[in-house]
Amino acid sequence: MTCRPITLGIRVRENGINCYSAAMDWIVSLIPEIAPDPLASLAHPPAGATIVELRADRFPGIDIGAAISACPLPVLVTLRSVAEGGEGPDDPVRRAELLGGARDAGAALLDLEHQRDASLIGRLGLAPEQVILSWHNTEGTPGRLDELAGKMLGSPARWVKIVPTCRRLADLEALLSLHQSHNHGPQARRRLLAFSMGAPGLASRYLAPLLGPPVGYAAWSEDAPAAPGQLTSQRMEAVISHLEGPPQRLYGVVGADVSSSLSPVLHAAGYRRLGLPYLMVPVSVPDPEDLGGIFAPRGATLFDRVGLEARGWAVTSPYKAEAAAAADQLAPRVRRAGAANTLVLGPERLVAENTDADGVVGSLVTLGIDPQSRAAVVQGCGGAGRGAAVGLHLAGAEVVLRSRSKERAQRVAEELGVGWCPPDAFPEGTDLLVNATPLGREADELGPFTEDEIAGAKAVVDMVYASHQTELAASARAHGVAVADGREVLLHQGYAQFAAFTNQLPPKEAMREVLMR
After folding, report:
1. 10 vs 415, which has greater pLDDT?
2. pTM exceeding the 0.85 threshold for the entire prediction
3. Disulfide: which of 148, 167, 203, 484 matches 363 by Cβ 3.0-4.6 Å?
4. Cβ(409)–Cβ(421) below 8 Å
5. How many domains does the chain have?
6. 10 Å Cβ neighbour count for 464?
């Protein structure tokens, strides 16, 4: 039996039914963590999948013929070696035997590793369109990527896949430059799939299907990525489906690790509704030394060097003070707070704003609560706490800062011109509680306020958002206290960011709908 030919770029699944569209192809990876019965799972691929990748190295002894027969979609068989981060053999003889068996079983595509399997294209009699020639490095990003890409693209393969691990922004720049050098002409004719494992390279997963062939690798479910940083096709579509190629403008959410940020989804909903060919991506920066590569005027960032016009950053922990320090023009709220969560990149200067203030005040107004003359305790003195305190104070609230450190609370409060209290104190008559700390991000993690403090409040604003309800939000609701959770805060500060970035009114209903969904 030979590999079954497939036609890509047209077949998608909606509600379990095969239909036809010009949509992007999604290769969805099946791994044992979510497939105790792999044949049953293969019979029902996720909605949106175009091709199913069977990680044969993760299913030793599986009947590949039965697996292919069980799946209604074309099957890509991958035998990732131990040397490249998998569990399959490195021995070329054993690899040839197993991959030859997959060919005979009718696999639509075979993943052949450049360093171990390139000779099998001829030995197994494979047509180029049946081959993905791949290279992975789980340790880092070597300096020879351009040379490697040129050599691999000289081989007869449908696609060439290069996946290093980005540790720093310089690695991301080197990876994205491959698209600039090697992906030319109509998208359907491009051959290089280049993206990264690791948080600093996450932006490349969104960009690769736009800069290279319209093909993306996706996780079967959120709980079981086949590689570090792999996302579901639903998450990818939510961010990039409004685009048919490279974005005209690039924005990003910047922080130490923004892998779980919902800002790209939120802003994409606005771009989609207004027909704007823009994109927001996560930009994780573990080393603050790398901020200079992005906190720069328009045309001077690392993204500009690889052909992507960067126009602004949504900045989160722990870089809000650095964002304010990098700016040439500070909005009054930034000047007072000493922290910025929004950087607009001009051709010669950076403009800083703090929309955390809009997030907290706007979420309270949505609850029907005017902060004017209300007593508020803001827990946390970082960038989020500073922005929240300034926003509430400007809205007429009597603000008290509290922190685990008495000395820090006093120093920051004096800088901001608001009140403060020791960590074991609580002002009587407090109406509003604001959690501006990370407490609650982990499931079952207690928040910074006691039950008595919560029960006596009129409203709670929890700036933390997660896939679960935080303990603080749950406690407030149990006491009948109005709650604005982290998604509500994100929504309101996102409205203000969207307007600052695009100079257009944000389509609030579309943005709210996608975020709350």
Report:
1. 415
2. yes
3. 484
4. yes
5. 3
6. 22
